[in-house]
Amino acid sequence: MHFTLGEIAVPDSQLARDITQLVRDTESPLLFHHSSRVYYFAALAGKRRGLKVDPELLYAGTMFHDMGLTPAHGSADKRFEVDGANVAADFLRSRGIAQQDIDKVWTAIALHTTPGIPEFMDPVVALVTAGVEMDVLGIQYHAFADEDRERIVHAHPRTEHFKEDIIQAFHDGIRHKPDTTFGNVKADVLADKDPHFHRGNFCSAIRCSAWKG
Q1: Cα separation of 31 and 65, whole Å?
Q2: Which of 19, 40, 57, 163 has the fewest Cβ atoms nearer than 10 Å?
């Protein structure tokens, strides 16, 4: 369900419609509605920060950001963020989108679970992460008006136990490739769900490297 929130709306374009259809057909309702909420929260964050952003590129970044968690697009050995970024890039390339714009979307998706960096980059990159952080972690929750939050959630509902559901979705998408969680937040997901998971240790990796000294 698309709706207008002040000046913010899903772009009325064939590209956006194709993105919506593809993501709806591929992702679970949980991930589809999460991604849709991320778009609105990202756009609101951009408005609040005074950032100018191409709404089609922002929509692509937000809607494709979790495609790497799906069975159709999850690889055996890449971070799920890279899988999603590659799906988005291939899709945009097939629609004739300029490479520099594809690169923005790719980077936005690839970095959306890497805090502390996207905020200093292109608005597409910064805002995809901002939208994800708001919907999953509640970062800057009180900077969003109650009415805006309520309207977004009404249009794209959160499940009754969204927090646990989204953790489970992460787990289901990455449990077959635990090595891809080294040095990133998804190691926390596997540690929470899998009692036999042993997270990688950066200091141990240094000490065990081939270098002497």
Answers
A1: 10
A2: 163
The Cα 98–Cα 95 span in angstroms is 9
Separation of alpha carbons 84 and 65, rounded Å: 6
Q: For the whole model, what pTM was predicted?
A: 0.92
Q: Are 88 and 68 in contact (CB under 8 A)?
A: no
Whose structure tokens read 């900077």?
143
pLDDT tens for 22-60 read 999 999 999 999 999 999 999 999 999 999 999 999 999
- Between 29-49 and 146-155, two packed helices, what is the crossing angle to 10 degrees? 150
Q: Which amino acid is at 112?
A: H
Q: In this predicted model, what pLDDT tens digit does every residue of 135-146 receive, in sequence order?
A: 999 999 999 999
DSSP 72: T
Residue 76 located in a structural domain: yes
Is 205 part of any domain?
no
Domain residues for the domain of 63 are: 14-176
61 part of a folded domain: yes
Q: What tokens does 10 get?
A: 């899903």
